[in-house]
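Two proteins follow. First one:
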Amino acid sequence: MKKTILLFAVCLCAAACQTLPTSSEYLARGDGYFKDGKIEQALKAYDKALALNPDRTDIYASRGAAYFFKGDYVSAQNDFLTVVEKNPYQADAYTALGSALAALGDYDNALKMFSISLNLNPSKPETFFSRGGVFFMQEEYDKAIADYTSVILLAPAAEVYNARGAAYLKKGDTAKAEDDFNVAKGGRFPEKLNEYSMID
């Protein structure tokens, strides 16, 4: 009987001594799930992290990115808006918010967010690429080409050459379009910009 009571007491002590996961641990789990493509599990981990620490903008940013890649642009917009409200100097958050707005078809406000982001950090290729995409959708091909060229100077990638080639094609400049498509197929550059770095 004494051995049983002692063993039970040791088990209780061991259970009590185990640390509960922190918001940082849940955030790390969520990021791992996200990178593995397990968006629902990532969202649950981010929710747990925010329940423990609702003031951490990095958790809202990560959850917003997960919502974005899930296609839930309204929830993504809400999370990115929380980030910029809590930290108005976070350039990447404005890019992410602009991307969510663009996905919702609100191009004018998306462009405003990209402009704020570029004022804060004028050398972020993802911001130029996103803004170029909005200009393309608005059929402002010269502006799109200028932004895609800025990306190429900062971080060349095949998808950027393809995007610029498509803009040249829309303008009727088939020679420049063909040049860009050939560069994209050449294999000299990465296929994509870092799609997971919405907010670094």
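Second one, unrelated to the first:
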Amino acid sequence: MSDRNTTPTETTAFNVAKPTSSLLLWLWAPMLLVLSIDPLIRVFAGKPPFQATFASWGGWLILFLVGAALTVTYRRRELRVEPKQLTIAATLYTRRVALSSMRLERARVVNFAENPDFKPGGKSNGFQFPGFRAGHFHMKGGGKAFCLITDNSRVLVIPLRDGNSVLVSPEQPRALLDELRRLADGGAQA
């Protein structure tokens, strides 16, 4: 996290919590399994596993490039507090949320194991695998949420005035909430 004594024109970056699940397990293992099926079938049929044609090795190349692109995309995670907004960069998505649109008096830090009602439901436009959510989701109780969730045990839930929510997993959720409240109070007094 950056220096806590910020002037009204500075940006404060907050570290996103490290994901609790492994990208290697949930992205690469299934892809490698799919890629290995054809060569294994060919070996058991008594044929060489690969031929010197694009049809033989092209799928490997394409899936590797897709996996590499998804890995780079997955690593794009950022939380920045600016004087009048919170900027969330999550995989392919960026959301800027004005402080004035937040209901910070109702914001709270939750653990999904203890508070499953706050856990997002279905994905409407996002990136998801166990322990990781980024993008737009429907909430179980209604409404929508923009999420950057990397750790289900420390999620900052920020209700918005339009009935939707923002759910993020900073390393220090209480510090992020305190900074948002400090900036909102400063804006109200100005």
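SUMMARY FIELD: The chain has a mean pLDDT of 87. The first strand starts at residue 12 and ends at 14.
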